Amino acid sequence: MDLFAETWQYLLDPDSWTGGSGLVARLLEQLLLTATALVAAMLLGLPLALWLGHLGRGGFLAVNISNVGRAVPTFALLALLVAADWPGSADFGPYGRAGLATLIALVLFALPPLITNGYVGMREVPSDVQEAADGMGMSPAQRFWRVELPLALPVVASGVRLALVQVWATATIAALVAGPGLGRIITEGFARNDYAQGMAGAVVVALVALVLELAAAAVQRAVDPMPRAPSPDRDDGLSVPSSTVAEAPTGS
Question: Does the model's pTM come out above 0.90?
Answer without folding.
Answer: no
